[in-house]
């Protein structure tokens, strides 16, 4: 028994760490941030309030929320010299490559003034990262498109500012549609944290050596990039493009069963039931497409057909394969006008608060030790060196 939840001894033996941040029940499809069900946060909260909750363990009072929002908005500019880093990349560099590089480079601007053992310094590092990662992501997109780098704007919400920094130009201010901004904010909430997933474990392992938080978050971004993890939403859109139309679904599904390809956006290491985020994402998808008059969007219809077929197919049922958070997110982002290349950067942007919350929880633990996964050695037995001249 740990707190409210009881685990079977077999599970306890496999657990790599303890945490108070996020609870997942993969069999029942439950996800709680600090005890609050994701469905309630997606409906009633906003992303910055969820950031406060993940970082501090409690929902903020009105004053705490106002102060937190102000602090994040106050740190969202980049040191002007950081803009030079973008110019070091080829124009066609993937935005995730740029994010890994530029977020890691923040170490050169803030690392030596940071004492990771000082709670206040840890808080400032968290503010800086939550505030600056959207600015970095937006600039990576603009640099890729040959647009002038942009700046955040006062008076906009976190999601509105991201859209503004992505799409406003000196000659045309991007008009933020509040329905789309709210949908994007909800997508940020759904991606904010997810327990010990691959990228969060990467951040914790990096942080356990005492590396600075900027370098640790850069490591998390690098891990998230993979198509089996954060890159899946980009892969779902590519998969839908390849399938093209509902008529091609049976042949595609045959390929899945013959293991020539996977059904991207399906399956999960933990969820053996519907990923609760996928259900909320599907509803958000519905709302956004209706708002934009795209409810006949062929990609959305194809995705729903794929989901319907898979959920009734013994191959998927036997393997407990259900839609995960990435299955519908790409369609929503596309409808909002976000290019495919920016899907994973948006996942990284939203997950930054989860990474920094886990880093903070670990660093604040006086009993923290450096991570050192052990292995089973299955290589050659002991043997003596053979001189080069004697080798055949
Ligand atoms: C994320 O960990 C997290 O929390 C991650 C995440 C987060 O918020 O941080 O939730 C975000 O990464 C979501 C997952 C996004 N990835 C994808 O959608 C890529 C497609 N999914 C797969 O690559 C796969 O499902 C994984 C990587 C997610 C999980 O892989 P596992 O653990 O190997 O899956 P499994 O053990 O449940 O597989 C059981 C069977 C196997 O077949 P058999 O050997 O039994 O015949 O199901 C098959 C698998 O090959 N299978 C799939 C499949 N996923 C698993 N077959 C077809 N399509 C798939 N998507």
Q: Would you mind describing this structure in some detail?
A:
- It is a single chain.
- This protein is mostly helical and about 400 residues long.
- About 55% of the residues lie in helices and about 5% in strands.
- The protein is built from 18 helices and three strands.
- The protein has a three-stranded antiparallel beta sheet.
- α8 packs across α9.
- The longest helix is centred in the middle third of the chain and has 27 residues, at about 120-145.
- The protein starts with 8 loop residues before the first helix and ends in a 29-residue tail after the last helix.
- S-citryldethia Coenzyme A binds near residues 321 and 326.
- S-citryldethia Coenzyme A binds next to loops.
List keywords for this structure.
binds s-citryldethia Coenzyme A; mainly alpha; Citrate synthase; 56% helix; globular; acyltransferase; 392 residues; single chain; transmembrane helix; membrane; transferase
Short description:
One of its GO terms (molecular function) is citrate synthase activity. Pathway: Carbohydrate metabolism; tricarboxylic acid cycle; isocitrate from oxaloacetate: step 1/2. With 392 residues, the chain is mostly helical.
Helix content: 55-70%
* Major β-sheet profile: 3 strands, antiparallel
Tally of individual helices? 18
What is the topology, as strand order, of the major beta sheet? 1-2-3
Strand content: under 5%
Low-confidence stretches: none
Please state the average pLDDT score. 93
How big is the Rg? 22 Å
Query: Which structural class fits the helix and strand makeup?
Result: mainly alpha
Instruction: Give the overall shape, derived from the CA principal axes.
Output: globular
In total, how many beta strands?
Answer: 3
The arrangement of helices and strands along the chain is HEEEHHHHHHHHHHHHHHHHH
Separation of termini?
A: 60 Å
Small molecules (ligands, ions, cofactors) in the structure:
s-citryldethia Coenzyme A
């Amino acid at each position: 028994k740990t707190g409210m939840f009881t685990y079977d001894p077999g599970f306890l033996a496999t657990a790599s760490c303890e945490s108070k941040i996020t609870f997942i029940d993969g069999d029942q499809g439950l996800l709680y941030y600090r005890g609050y069900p994701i469905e309630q946060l997606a409906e009633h909260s906003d992303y910055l309030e969820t950031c406060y909750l993940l970082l501090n363990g409690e929902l903020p009072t009105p004053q705490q929320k106002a102060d937190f929002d102000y602090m994040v908005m106050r740190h969202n500019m980049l040191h002007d010299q950081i803009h030079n880093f973008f110019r070091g990349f080829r124009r066609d560099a993937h935005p995730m490559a740029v994010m890994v590089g530029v977020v890691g480079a923040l170490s050169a601007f803030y690392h030596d003034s940071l004492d990771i053992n000082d709670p206040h310094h840890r808080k400032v590092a968290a503010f800086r990262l939550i505030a600056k990662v959207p600015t970095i992501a937006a600039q990576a997109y603009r640099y890729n498109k040959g647009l002038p780098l942009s700046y955040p704007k006062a008076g906009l919400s976190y999601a509105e500012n991201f859209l503004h920094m992505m799409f406003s130009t000196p000659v045309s201010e991007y008009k933020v549609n509040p329905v789309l901004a709210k949908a994007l904010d909800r997508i940020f909430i759904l991606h904010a944290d997810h327990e010990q997933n691959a990228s969060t474990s990467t951040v914790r392992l990096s942080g356990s050596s005492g590396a600075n938080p900027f370098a640790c978050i850069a490591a998390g971004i690098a891990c998230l990039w993979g198509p089996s993890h954060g890159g899946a939403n980009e892969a779902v859109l590519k998969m839908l493009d390849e399938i093209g139309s509902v008529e091609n679904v049976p042949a595609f599904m045959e390929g899945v069963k013959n293991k020539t390809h996977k059904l991207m956006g399906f399956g999960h290491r933990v969820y053996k039931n519907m990923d609760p985020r996928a259900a909320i994402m599907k509803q958000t998808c519905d709302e956004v497409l209706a708002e934009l008059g795209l409810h006949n969007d062929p990609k959305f219809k194809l995705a729903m057909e794929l989901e319907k077929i898979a959920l009734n197919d013994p191959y998927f049922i036997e393997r407990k394969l259900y839609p995960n958070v990435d299955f519908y997110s790409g369609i929503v982002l596309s409808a909002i006008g976000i290019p495919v290349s920016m899907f994973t950067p948006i996942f990284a942007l939203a997950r930054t608060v989860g990474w920094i919350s886990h880093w903070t929880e670990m660093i604040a633990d006086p009993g923290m030790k450096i991570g050192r996964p052990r292995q089973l050695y299955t290589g050659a037995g002991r043997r003596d060196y053979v001189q080069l001249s004697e080798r055949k």
